[in-house]
């Protein structure tokens, strides 16, 4: 039987505690005969403290060898003033870039049982199910020049550069259209073509791919600022939203916050399929961050992290039955009222991080 | 008595109809002896149709001569495929740049009477009063290179460049801190210092200005993506938010949409004070766009445009009593239930654009 190599990178803040719960789930599947091999390494502030870098070369090698990386979260005030090149986030950005994880899939789902946790009115978010497809290895995150220079008069100038190439926009557009076909068949492409040349270009390429390969899918173009507004006004108008790295960062966070289920939302970052083996590199992480304020207190909701492992079962290993089984166990535990503080129903007792993990294992 | 020169640029879509209502208000003040001189010119798609440019040189000259510009809105599907350099938005961008309007003030206020129009829960937005201070003449909107180039293999590369200089960040930070002192004394500075060098730089300069000149004002730094989330989660945590041109575009739109009062929100774009005359160039415009879908139907809410004229009374002409009087007239008309469709209370009849303008004049 095939053995799936998992690299666990818990990172900082609540990363380690939510990752421990995933290990329980992995353990359960392993006992039932699914071949998982796990290794664990450091990333982010934890890696900086140990090695002076946000991820070590050894950890990068392991990530390259792994069939999937499970990533917790990185960052925290403790490392706010470390040099830019070794800040915690650099570890995550290097993983994305070096593994070629260009497609970031961020579902924003509002669980009916949790709709009241949203700051939006129930009718606006109940049943919401949208997918943000964010380009993850290009744009302003990686373009050069990216620098702060001191000028002759002593003042300074800072520069970032947003660059997109044809193939980068083509491939992310294809991911979005492919996903839409399995969903409600609509893609909204967000950019600022009225002020950015990369926006003009984005719109052109997406339009061409649509016309040539996916003319049966509905496509609309929306300005990124208007998209943010529309997400707040009536998010159910969207199915799949495809957008660049920076707009995707913001729009996916808005979408996640709408649902009231931030501690519930997983994400997948996928590379290109190898034309020979059909394999693709992949990293799975919760949408939430490292939440330093509640770290170490057993308060964190592990479901986003566990759901991220569920996405790995589905997208990396083709273990669809196992993925369904896990999703169902999560849903049952939620329904039973075993919930952490962030999603506890009014008048019920919140349980700890470990209790939720244990309950899901039991339910499995 | 001093005569104030106003240039009216109605623009496209609902721009002309909401501007007509402002003219009534200006007329009322003129009859009561306040010296206003108005000129009107074209901008946006309307200017393109007439002159092949998004604003003519003659209109730019008039804008330079005016004490304040009142701007309606620009754009619409009709001009989606005109050449990039003459697209409707280019007129607005040139006005901002050539008049040096670096400080964009966008209040987001939730009128209690309208709180139910928000998609957010009443308790989340009722009484909301935040001010977004957006840098308006720098960043990715204007940096070069900004181009699409065709490479040797026939594929293309698109580039935009975000640039900030020391003095640009210093002056917008001062505007934000000054405003905060007259409000609830708190500034939240939003950037992405974890991925952008302009973010690192922004944070450094804001911190320095704070330390040197405004240490009595509370300052917090917040990541732009988290700021978007927090605006959705609990917007009342903010007082003044200061941010760059692109983040400001998105964050101010989110803030506006939260209030449920999009058709109500004015904005001011201000230049630097002339050290000799104390005068500053200024442009006032509603936060909403050209809304082509309802243009020409008499449905548009003119209050954002009229309120923008109120900001001109206050910020450009120091006519504080007149500004208060206008604000009060608007509030009374709202309270009386004379409202356009976007803000009509359930079960009441909506009135037209002109009715609201007439009612405000009557109330004055
Ligand atoms: C941690 C940070 C570098 C990252 C990003 O900006 O991409 C995060 O906000 C995210 O969305 O995954
Ligand atoms: C019309 C457009 C160029 C403009 C911008 O992006 O600045 C608008 O969205 C705004 O916020 O004023």
From TrEMBL, chains A, B:
Binds 1 Mg(2+) or Mn(2+) ion per subunit. One of its GO terms (biological process) is L-leucine biosynthetic process. GO terms for molecular function: 3-isopropylmalate dehydrogenase activity; magnesium ion binding; NAD binding. It catalyses: (2R,3S)-3-isopropylmalate + NAD(+) = 4-methyl-2-oxopentanoate + CO2 + NADH. Substrate binds at residues 96, 106, 134, 225. It is found in: Cytoplasm. Pfam families: Iso_dh. Mg(2+) binds at residues 225, 249, 253. Belongs to the isocitrate and isopropylmalate dehydrogenases family. LeuB type 1 subfamily. Catalyzes the oxidation of 3-carboxy-2-hydroxy-4-methylpentanoate (3-isopropylmalate) to 3-carboxy-4-methyl-2-oxopentanoate. The product decarboxylates to 4-methyl-2 oxopentanoate. Homodimer. HAMAP family: LeuB_type1 (MF_01033). This is 3-isopropylmalate dehydrogenase. It comes from Microvirga mediterraneensis. The lineage of its organism: Bacteria, Pseudomonadati, Pseudomonadota, Alphaproteobacteria, Hyphomicrobiales.
